Amino acid sequence: MAARRTELLEFAVLGLLHEAPQHGYELRKRLNAALGPFRALSYGTLYPCLRSLLDKGWISEATLGRSTTTGTTGSRRARIVYELTADGKERFQDLLREAGPTAWEDDTFDVHFAFFARTEAEVRLRILEGRRSRLEERLENIRAVSAKNRERFDSYTAELERHGLDSAEREVRWLNELITAERNTPTAAATPAPTSAASPATPSSTTQNDQPSTPFNHKE
User: Fold this and answer.
1) Helical axes 121-149 vs 155-184, angle rounded to 10°
2) Confidence tier at 210 by pLDDT (50, 70, 90)
3) Binning pLDDT at 50, 70 and 90, where does residue 218 land?
4) Which of 15, 37, 151, 198 lies 20 to 30 angstroms, CA to CA, from 120?
5) Do 10 and 87 reside in the same domain of the chain?
6) Same domain, yes or no, for 90 and 12?
């Protein structure tokens, strides 16, 4: 699990740096604000990741000029800006092409979806279909457990189960809309996601024992 999260963080950092060079503060701010799995990301996690990417030659760093402050505090430390190298861009493209289960599980789907605008249409469709299958399996499990244990549940457990069922069903409907839009869109190497996918309102599955965070706030 730790290795997967490290790889996911590397993917997210490469994706953000693909847009423009950024310094550590900007990266952490965007990771916390936009990408669900990293909302509680600390500098103690981010900077070792950046160091690893530097060692692999996927990013480079440049130091901005030192600026001074007023008063007696002296000058502030120079700010380091990170940017992708050619190898880093190639690595990011390789990661964008991944379309197996690691791209559509709860802790990875949101990050892959965030970079759909740069992902090939065929890969986008495969990830969406894989995510839908994953949610449909979850729905079957929830319904089976509910039918078997309904009489044993107290009102709060039953309500939590209903909430999980509603959330999964809502995400399946959303995925069906995206899949339909993808299939009706002319194939392109990397076309922007449909308008509904680019909206800041996308759902996230939430079940009784599985409540992943999401980079967006879902609205019915």
Assistant:
1) 160
2) very low
3) very low
4) 37
5) yes
6) yes
The structural domain count of the chain equals 2
Instruction: Flag whether 136 is in a domain.
Output: yes
Which residues span the domain enclosing 26? 2-64+79-96
Got the DSSP string for 70-125?
Answer: STTS-BPPPPEEEEE-HHHHHHHHHHHT--SGGGTSTTTHHHHHHTGGGS-HHHHH
Residue 150 and residue 193 in one domain:
yes
Q: Is 79 exposed, middle or buried (0-12, 13-18, 19+ CB in 10 A)?
A: middle
Q: 125 vs 112, 120, 133, 173, 204, CA distance in Å?
A: 12, 9, 12, 15, 18
Total-model pTM = 0.73
> In Å, how far are 53, 85, 88, 153 from 57, measured between CA atoms?
6, 7, 7, 54
3-state helix, strand, coil in the chain (%, to 5): 60, 5, 30
Q: What is the pLDDT of residues 131-185, one digit of tens each?
A: 999 999 989 988 888 777 777 778 888 888 888 889 999 999 999 999 999 999 8
Q: Are residues 89 and 125 in the same domain?
A: no
Query: For 44-62, what is each residue's pLDDT tens digit?
Result: 999 999 999 999 999 999 9
| 218 within domain boundaries | no
Please tell me what DSSP assigns to residue 59.
Answer: E
Whether residue 206 lies inside any domain: the answer is: no
Residue 91: give its domain's CATH number: 1.10.10.10
